[in-house]
Structure formats: structure tokens, C-alpha cells
Specification:
The complex is a heterodimer of chains A (345) and B (599). By secondary structure, chain A is an alpha+beta fold. Chain A has a single domain (12-88, 126-333), classed as Alpha-Beta Plaits (2-Layer Sandwich), CATH 3.30.70.20. Chain A has helices at 26-35, 83-87, 95-100, 151-155, 182-186, 208-212, 218-221, 239-246, 288-295, 299-314, 320-326, and strands at 12-17, 48-52, 138-142, 161-163, 170-172, 192-195, 200-203, 228-232, 251-252, 263-266, 272-274, 280-284. A 4-stranded mixed beta sheet of chain A has the order 8-1-10-9. In chain A, a hairpin with a 4-residue loop joins strand 6 (192-195) and strand 7 (200-203). Chain A is globular, with a radius of gyration of 21 Å. Chain A starts with 11 loop residues before the first strand and ends in a 19-residue tail after the last helix. The relative contact order of chain A is 0.18. In chain B, helix 14 links the parallel strand 4 and strand 5. Chain B has a 6-stranded mixed beta sheet with strand order 10-12-11-14-9-13. A 3-stranded parallel beta sheet of chain B has the order 3-4-5. A 3-stranded antiparallel beta sheet of chain B has the order 6-7-8. Classes of the chains: A alpha+beta (345), B alpha/beta (599). Chain A binds chain B through residues 23-25, 28-29, 32-33, 88, 90-93, 95, 98-99, 101-102, 107, 109-112, 116, 119-122, 124-132, 135-137, 274, 277-280, and chain B through 36-40, 43, 251, 256-257, 461-462, 470, 472-481, 485, 487-489, 498-499, 516-523, 533, 535-540. The structure holds iron/sulfur cluster (2 copies). Residues 144-147, 150-152, 170, 187, 189, 191-192, 203, 259 of chain A line the site of one iron/sulfur cluster.
């Protein structure tokens, strides 16, 4: 490791229960409207939601070796995604011409001015399998993982990226940033974006001005699925600790990259495949091997715990885990004591 | 047995008839009809039979087929056989609304305060009728609910100047001819015959307007986008208008064809309440986050200004009192006085009106100030439960589970059916004619011609109907152009690749859309998320140009227990899901709707 990344005093964290995600992209738009409406970041989505199995956003993000670390712990040079074929350009539209042609014989219709090759949500709901036997897909909302060993921090020759001492949020100091894009290349989750107008890197700030006031990030607050939990990892009364440490049902995405993500996922259970008679088999539609390729071996005990607790609840017995995940009292999803607001220099 | 007139008739209990009727419906037969496997059906049936508290949550989507009523009657039959209706945690949750009586008051009041409210009460029924009603209730000839419902129905059917799209469409001979052609053979008699009979017998209130309309005034809607076969609406109605006005927060397709657009403030530029279906029992408040852009205004204000101007002109020209829609005289010389409650509501007083709405049984204790703080508030009851609701729970006070229909189960009031009981049997003459006395299966008619794909729609994820449908930020989440979703296997068979253009065609012509592959789509179905604006398609013609929107004549039946017209409760709709289309690759050929057939 190039820099000795100091351990933060506390680590803020998010858990997302994939069993409840509707793929509505409210989080995506909540985030985009709040932070990324500038021309230079028009194509970027600090929060994105993918349909999986699928190519992801940016396309190819789940392919092996998109960045991350080598076995020795060094930074592995990855790829900078292509604007057209991986991110997808923010297409512009021709509304005015279309409206003006209302009375004309040749009508112009609203459509992208640019050639469309890819975009966020491009393979929405495509999934895999055959209807009705084993067709399947699920949604994977993604944001920066505010990693414990962030590759983006290590990759930057200007030391422009740092992990905040107070809460472990990973931030780009845009005054120091020279726009080399080593971080974009190194982050295997592809969650650093390059602002091509201001020529600096930008990334998710975990809505830090909100966190400081004790308010959860916009993507979490506005999620109609109520599937996001926000809090500190060491808070044993909070949902994060319970789901990650106690019940061990919330696990990181791509642990093999070795970055120690602080965003965790409750993996999706799925209805059974049907046999030739249309009868449900015992096998889940989403192949567990596929989930393993995303979440590693920890997905097995996590799914087992979920199924066992769900069965308990169905028998009418109490289950702390299921009550937590159902989120009867949504306010309990967030445990963020307000802090003294830091004055950013 | 022998009837009073001496005729001999055979009598059988409905239960026996029902059993007989259901006899042929074995799992095997159902499997043949549905294409599901016998085992799947058996599994479902066993699950249903064992379920302690079966519940059906049935939304509007369930009402968009020609034979939706048969489907819904079947669901109700299954629930009734389990004794599930009106039982806690079980039964039927359809899209009931919590009834805000304050809303209907606010809409009708012409004076502020108690005097205004009382006037509303007496405007729909005379004091004599009120007296009789009270007497009926006291003498137990009618329940309180029945009496109130009668008053409400009378107001809606005979006072309020209102109608529905089917009525508007069928009133136009050209449109009516198109639909009759489409529906030939679907019912024992032609569609128009039922329409005429329903109007003659007063089953359908119709709109007894005296002359053809001259002005099309659109607010809170986008009719030219939304209507089925808009080419007929346009050719036979809109093109005949002297004036078209659109009041809208959005530059809609309807607005594009209007003479005037009065820009309304956007959703976050004006305060307001939203109330939604009762399984989310909260009233929502939206504050104005930012002031309205440019000259746009809150709709309340637009109508305030407009009514003032109309009143001024009416006075200036000394317009006579006239009866435009055939539901009673309207004096335009006092229009603004009535709108503004004799001047007590000013140009910016939308919130005063909201306060009036909050004087509802279901919103006890709610204030605008409180809503501004909390954003939402839980209803305190299901409201007056008169019309347009399927809640009917007098005990629910905002706490715990909202069980529907307990008025008729726990409280033992008679069901509003012919027999006063839950009934599976309807022997209304039209239902007999259609052989729909009991719920049964009828095949989905092939609307738009015999083409291989069923064209099925759903509410969009990236818009609320056509609002935000063409917003760049939302379009970037869905490839920028209208898409038709097909099963990957079907696409392969036709030779279509993902994102390619395809020609979607049927007897009404063709349109062009992008292909979107999805494993969620059943083979043989072409799926689309609705509300694309026509100007998002080549020629400014959307798939609506291919959708005839079938009308089920039975929805115009009346005078039989619960089978009677009620706004938003029992009225004909325009069924889109039966539409059939073909799909072929687009290789540059011209697409477009066929010309409107002249009558
Ligand atoms: S997810 Fe990527 S951008 Fe975020 S902290 Fe980890 S390495 Fe850095
Ligand atoms: S807002 Fe919530 S439910 Fe919607 S896509 Fe995002 S995470 Fe999923």
C-alpha cells in the first residue's frame, strides 16, 4: 500500500436488503438531482441501480479485473470505462423541434440527438432464464462503498483522496485533484467519475452534510422500498451491527477485491424454479453460484439464516431479524446521532 | 311451483345452480383454457382452500380487459366461498378511496361557512325529499347508508355536469361506428343498441346537452394522448371545436393542439393535498418548495382569474341563464361570485379551500399547519362511505388493520344487492342475454384484428402517466424512445434484436417502437409501459392509434340492485388489454395509422 490509511474513529455504513428493491431508481434520481446536474457530471450516477444478471453500470463492471488490488495488496491498474459503450452519454433531446412540427406535414419526434449505445439501466428487467420455468433477475443498487482499504485513495499520486477521520467517508479534495483519473481506473466498483468540464474526479460523499445533521443520505431516505439501513458499524444497538455482525446476513459486494467495503447487501432469496409440470422445485431461480460470484462464499450462510428466520416467522414464532428487515418502524432504519458540523476549509 | 298468475315454474336454489355451473370447470379444463399446468392450478387451489385468511388485492389494472368483470366476479366468488369477505385480515381490497366529504362540499359550496355547507346539502335534495328520507330511515324502510347514497347518486347523475370518455366517444357517430365495427359479433346485439336502450331506460345518465360543444377545455388531463383511437376523437370532435384550451403543468400533446395553454404551476410549486388508495391510509401534503416558474400559476388561481373574466364578459353582454349540459340552468353572470364564495376566497386562497376539504370525517384534527410539519397524516376513519368506495368499515378509527366491508358482515346491514345478500347470481335481462348470470370464462376478444401478440400495458416506472414521460432525466433511464417489451424467444423468432426498431401493426395501421428484451414478458405478449406522448413517435402517432378500447355493454346496465350507474363505481370503461398486434422488423418501410373511416 502506498499510503498508510489511518483507521477512522468510526465508520458510517449502509445495508441494502435486495429482497425489497423495486428497481424504481428513486435513489438514483434523488442522488442525481441533489449532486450531479452539472454538465461535466451529466453522465455520472453516484448511485445507480442495475438489473442482474446483466452487464451492470458501467457495462462490464462485474467482469473480473476491472481494478482493485493485487494479491500482494498493491493497486491493480484497471480500466477507465468508455463514455459511450460503458457509461452511456447523457443524451440530449429535441423537444422544441418536435413541438414546433405539430402542424407541419413532416413530424419530428422526440428522440436522443446522440447515438445510443449504453446507459444506466440499459438492460433493465432483461435477466436470464426461460419464462415461466426459471426466468429471473433482481436489482442491485450501488453507491461508493467507502472502503476500509480504498483503492481510489492508493491510486492517487496527489494524495487528493482521503478517508475522513470522523466517519470514514472517502472524499476527493477537488482542489488537489489534477484529473489524472487513476482513481477511476483503480476503483473496481467504478464509483469515481470524472467531471469532464471541471476536469476533476468526483464521487459519492455519502451525503455528508446530511450525515452531520443526523439525516440519512438522500438515496436511503427516499427509498420507497425501505430497504436501506444507515448507521455506524460499531453501534451495537443499531441495524448495521445487527445485520452485519450479529446475524451475518449483510455481506459486501465483491469481497475478492480486498477493499473492505462498508456497504453491505442482504442477498436475494428467490422463488423456486418450476419443473416440466409447472410444479415448484426446491431450487431457487437465481442460481446460488451466480450470487456467489458477486458476494463470495458468505452468501451461503447468509441465505440459510434468512430462510431459517423466515420459516420461523411463518410458523408464528418471533424473529428479530425478520422484524428488522420488514422495517415496521422505518425511522429505526437510520441511527445517526447528529454531530457537530465540521467546517470544511 | 305455481306463481300468482297461475304459471308453473321450476325453482332451484342458486347454490345448486352454481354447483351445476361450476361442474365442468375441472383442473384439467382450467389448464386447457389458461395454458397453466394442472399441477400449478391444483397447488393454488389447495393453498386457497387451506388459507386461513385469503385476501385479494385487486387494483385498477384488473379492470382493463373486456371481461374484467368476469375475472373480478370470480375472485369475489372464491372469497365468498371461503367466507372471507368482511373478515379481519382477509377479503377484498380493491382501489377504495377514503371518502373526503369535505372535498365534495368544497367543490360545490357557493358561500363560505355553515350556510354554504347547508346550501350544498339542499342543492341536491329538496327539504321534502330530505324529510321523506329521514322518515324512511326512522321507520327502517331504508338504512342510513341507502338514504345517503340515494342523495349522492341523484346529485352525480342529475345535477353535476359530468360525463365519461366512453359517453363522449359514443356520442360521436363516427367514433361509434368505428367501435361498432370493431365489436361486431361480441354481443348478441350491436353495441349501439345497448347504448340506446341504457339511455332510454335512464340506466346511463348520459349527458343530455342541448347542442354540440364548441369549446374543449382540458385541465388535469391529456385526453388526446390518452384516449383510445384518438384519430377518431380528433376527426369527429376536436377538429369541430371553435376553441381548445389546455390548463396544464406540462406541455402535453393535447396542449400542442390547443389554441391556448394556461401554464399551471408544477407539483412542487404549489401547496396541495394528495389522497391515494385506502390500503395506504394516509393523507399526503405537498408544500410549495419553490415559487411557480414564469407566468405559471396554481390551478385554483387560474380558475379564479378565468371565472372573474367570464363573469365580467357575461355581465357586459348580459348573457341569459342557460342550460349547457342539460342538468339545470347556469348563470355565468354570477360564476365568479360562486367560485369565490361571494368574494370570501381571494386569488391566492387555495389553502382556505384545502381547509374546507380537511373538514372531513376522515381527517379529524388535521390542519394545514400540522400537515406542513409531518407531510402525511393517518386518516381517522374511512369517511362517509357513500359512493365510490369499497371500504365500508364504520369501526375503523385510523388504528390497526383496515378490514373492508364490515358494514355488511359485522354490522349486518343488507348488502346493496338485489337480494341484500352476497350474490353470485345476476338475472338482469342483459346478463341473461349475455349468459353471464354467473361468473364464467370468456375468451379475450381479438381487438384490432387477428394478430399474434396480445398488447398489454402497465403503469410506467419513469413517469406518473404522461407527467415526466418526456423529461430527459427520466428518458435516460429508458433508452430515450418508446419501447415494446418482448420475450427474448419471441424476438429471436421474428428476427429482432434488442434496441432495434420494430413495426407494430394491426388493422388500424402501424407504429414504430424500439424492441426491449425482457424475461418478465410472457411469450405471445407484447408489453409496454403506458403514457408515451404521441410526439415521441414518428408521425406523432402512438400505439393508441392501434387500440380500439372495447366497451362492455353490460357496464351500461342498470336498475338492478348493485347493477346501477355510479360515477367511478359502475360505468363503462375502455378496455385496452385485449388489443392484438403483429410485430415485424423495421427496415425503412413507411409506418402510420390508416385514415379514419368516414361515415
Ligand atoms: S468503492 Fe471505489 S471509490 Fe468508493 S472508496 Fe472503494 S475504491 Fe474508493
Ligand atoms: S429507491 Fe430503493 S427500491 Fe427504489 S431502486 Fe433504489 S434501492 Fe431500490
Amino acid at each position: 500500500m502506498r499510503y498508510d490509511i489511518p483507521k477512522p474513529l468510526r465508520q458510517v455504513s449502509m445495508v441494502l436488503d435486495l429482497n425489497k428493491c423495486l428497481g424504481c431508481q428513486t435513489c438514483t434520481i434523488a442522488c442525481k438531482k441533489l449532486w450531479n446536474t452539472d454538465e461535466g457530471t451529466d453522465y455520472s450516477y453516484w448511485n445507480s441501480v442495475e438489473t442482474l444478471p446483466g452487464r451492470g453500470f458501467p457495462a462490464g463492471v462485474h467482469d473480473p479485473a476491472t481494478g482493485g488490488r493485487t494479491v500482494e495488496g498493491g493497486v491493480r491498474r484497471g480500466v477507465v470505462p468508455n463514455l459511450d459503450t460503458a457509461y452511456g452519454r447523457a443524451w440530449t433531446f429535441n423537444h422544441e423541434e418536435a413541438r414546433a412540427s405539430a402542424g407541419a406535414p413532416d413530424k419530428i419526434w422526440i428522440r436522443p440527438r446522440e447515438t445510443v449505445k449504453w446507459g444506466p439501466n440499459f438492460d433493465e428487467d432483461q435477466g436470464q432464464g426461460d419464462y415461466p420455468k426459471d426466468n429471473h433477475y433482481f436489482y442491485l443498487p450501488r453507491l461508493c462503498n467507502h472502503c476500509t482499504h480504498p483503492a481510489c485513495v492508493d491510486a492517487c499520486p496527489r494524495a487528493a483522496i482521503a478517508k475522513r477521520r470522523e466517519d470514514g467517508i472517502v472524499l476527493v479534495d477537488q482542489d488537489r485533484c489534477h484529473g489524472y483519473r487513476f482513481c477511476v481506473e483503480a476503483c473496481p466498483y467504478k464509483k469515481v467519475y470524472y467531471d469532464h468540464v471541471r476536469q476533476v474526479s468526483t464521487k459519492c460523499i455519502f451525503c455528508l452534510p446530511r450525515i452531520e445533521e443526523g439525516v440519512a443520505p438522500a438515496c436511503a431516505r427516499q427509498c420507497p422500498g425501505r430497504l436501506r439501513f444507515v448507521g455506524y458499524r460499531d453501534d451495537e444497538q443499531g441495524p448495521i451491527w445487527k445485520l452485519v455482525e450479529k446475524w451475518k446476513v449483510a455481506i459486501p459486494l465483491h469481497p475478492e477485491y480486498g477493499l473492505g467495503p462498508n456497504v453491505f447487501y442482504v442477498p436475494p432469496m428467490s422463488p423456486p424454479k418450476l419443473d416440466a409440470e409447472g410444479r415448484p422445485t426446491g431450487e431457487p431461480r437465481i442460481p446460488v453460484s451466480y450470487l456467489e460470484s458477486l458476494f463470495g462464499a458468505a452468501v451461503h450462510p447468509a441465505l440459510e439464516a434468512l430462510l431459517a428466520e423466515r420459516a420461523r416467522r411463518r410458523r408464528g414464532e418471533a424473529s428479530e431479524l425478520m422484524d428488522l428487515l420488514i422495517a415496521y418502524d422505518w425511522q429505526q432504519n437510520f441511527r445517526l446521532p447528529p454531530r457537530q458540523r465540521e467546517v470544511l476549509g | 311451483m305455481t306463481l300468482a298468475d297461475g304459471r308453473e315454474v321450476r325453482v332451484a336454489p342458486v347454490g345448486t345452480l352454481l354447483k351445476e355451473h361450476l361442474e365442468p370447470w375441472t383442473f384439467e379444463h382450467a389448464a386447457q383454457v389458461t395454458g397453466l399446468h394442472v399441477e400449478q392450478i391444483r397447488l393454488f387451489a389447495e393453498g386457497w382452500a387451506q388459507a386461513k385468511r385469503p385476501m385479494v388485492l385487486s387494483s385498477w389494472g384488473a379492470n382493463r380487459y373486456m371481461h374484467s368483470d368476469l375475472m373480478n366476479r370470480t375472485k369475489l366468488l372464491c372469497l365468498a366461498l371461503k367466507g372471507a369477505l368482511g373478515r379481519k385480515g382477509a377479503g377484498y381490497q380493491s382501489t377504495g378511496w377514503v371518502d373526503l366529504d369535505g372535498f365534495s362540499n368544497a367543490m360545490r359550496m357557493e358561500k363560505s361557512g355553515l350556510r354554504g355547507r347547508l346550501a350544498v346539502l339542499f342543492s341536491s335534495i329538496t327539504p321534502g325529499e330530505l324529510f321523506n328520507s329521514v322518515l324512511d330511515v326512522v321507520r327502517k324502510r331504508k338504512t342510513e347508508l341507502e338514504a345517503t347514497l340515494e342523495g349522492e347518486t341523484k346529485y352525480l347523475n342529475h345535477k353535476l355536469c359530468t360525463t365519461d370518455v366512453v359517453e363522449v366517444n359514443l356520442k360521436s357517430p363516427g367514433y361509434r361506428a368505428a367501435l361498432e365495427r370493431e365489436q361486431q359479433g361480441l354481443s348478441p346485439r350491436p353495441l349501439g343498441a345497448y347504448y340506446d336502450e341504457a339511455h332510454e331506460k335512464g340506466w346511463s345518465p348520459g349527458l343530455p346537452r342541448k347542442g354540440p360543444p364548441k369549446v374543449f377545455f382540458s385541465g388535469g388531463a391529456n385526453l388526446l394522448r390518452r384516449n383510445n383511437l384518438p384519430q377518431y376523437l380528433k376527426a369527429y370532435q376536436l377538429d369541430e371545436m371553435e376553441l381548445i384550451v389546455d390548463v396544464n403543468p406540462k406541455f402535453t400533446f393535447t396542449g400542442m393542439h390547443a389554441d391556448y395553454i394556461l401554464p399551471a404551476a408544477g407539483w412542487y410549486e404549489k401547496p396541495g393535498i394528495k389522497y391515494n388508495v385506502a390500503h395506504v391510509p394516509y393523507l399526503h401534503y405537498t408544500d410549495a418548495a419553490v415559487p411557480p416558474l414564469a407566468e405559471s400559476k396554481d390551478e385554483y388561481e387560474i380558475y379564479w382569474l378565468l371565472s372573474r373574466e367570464i363573469e365580467r364578459l357575461a355581465k357586459e353582454r348580459d348573457l341569459p341563464v342557460f342550460d349547457g349540459c342539460g342538468r339545470g340552468p347556469i348563470d355565468w353572470k354570477t360564476l365568479h361570485q360562486r367560485y369565490s364564495n361571494q368574494g370570501t376566497l381571494g386569488q391566492k386562497d387555495a389553502e382556505k379551500l384545502t381547509e374546507e376539504i380537511l373538514r372531513s370525517g376522515a381527517t379529524e384534527g388535521m390542519t394545514i399547519q400540522g400537515l406542513k410539519q409531518t407531510g402525511i397524516a393517518r386518516y381517522t376513519s374511512t369517511g362517509t362511505d357513500v359512493a365510490a368506495t369499497s371500504l365500508h368499515n364504520p369501526d375503523w378509527k385510523g388504528e390497526g388493520v383496515l378490514t373492508t366491508l364490515t358494514r355488511f358482515t359485522e354490522h349486518k346491514e343488507p348488502w346493496p344487492t338485489y337480494s341484500g345478500r352476497i350474490t353470485t347470481f345476476i338475472d338482469h335481462p342483459w346478463f341473461v342475454e349475455f349468459r353471464e348470470q354467473f361468473a364464467t370464462h370468456k375468451t379475450s376478444p381479438k381487438a384490432g384484428g387477428d394478430h399474434p401478440f396480445q398488447f398489454v400495458s402497465c403503469h410506467a416506472r419513469w413517469s406518473i402517466h404522461s407527467t415526466w414521460r418526456d423529461t430527459p432525466m427520466m428518458l435516460r433511464l429508458q433508452r430515450g424512445e418508446p419501447q415494446v417489451w418482448v420475450n427474448p424467444g419471441d424476438a429471436e423468432r421474428i428476427g429482432l434484436e434488442d434496441y432495434a426498431y420494430a413495426e407494430i401493426f394491426n388493422d388500424y395501421g402501424s407504429v414504430r417502437m424500439r424492441v426491449k428484451l425482457s424475461g418478465l414478458v410472457r411469450p405471445g405478449v407484447a408489453y409496454y409501459y403506458h403514457a408515451w406522448e404521441p410526439h415521441q413517435f414518428p408521425n406523432h402517432e402512438s400505439y393508441k392509434w392501434l387500440i380500439p378500447g372495447l366497451v362492455n355493454p353490460l357496464h351500461m346496465a342498470g336498475d338492478y340492485g348493485h347493477i346501477r350507474h355510479g360515477m367511478n363505481r359502475y360505468q363503462p370503461g375502455s378496455a385496452v388489454q385485449d388489443t392484438r398486434i403483429g410485430i415485424r422488423p423495421w427496415t425503412g418501410q413507411a409506418t402510420g395509422a390508416k385514415p379514419v373511416v368516414q361515415v
